[in-house]
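Z., the sequence and structure:
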Amino acid sequence: MEERFETFTLLISKINRSIKKIKSVEMAEYNLKSPHVSCIYYLYKAGSLTAKQLCDICDEDKASVSRSIEYLENNGYIECNSLTQKRYKSPLKLTEQGKSIGEAVCSKIDNILNEASSGLLDADRGVMYRSLKLISENLQKIVEKYED
């Protein structure tokens, strides 16, 4: 049992550190950080999302997403054309510059995912993702018990 715990936590930590390092190195040429990458990626895929939707899909807190939105907006990557009072619920979309970066980001992500999963059969990949999803959901249920 002890070895299972060590292996699981060590591998998850290593994967997380590797992802952060890859994001940092790959996005340096665009002056983007990890939360910026997630915002651009999901906006590129969806076309338009609100700040709240970005928080949910990126699994980031409101402050982090707000800082990312501010940075991306100030640097010409995203825009908010809504005149509503509730900016948090206003749709955001990529500018032409943002779309260009979004395309490059998605291409880099696809290449890295292909390289990272080399040697995995499609069936193995499916089992891995289903297993990770189940583990994530089960851990979230445990966390929710602590919050009650």
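Strands lie at 49-50, 78-79, 91-94. The chain is about 70% helix and 5% strand.

Let me know what you think.
H.
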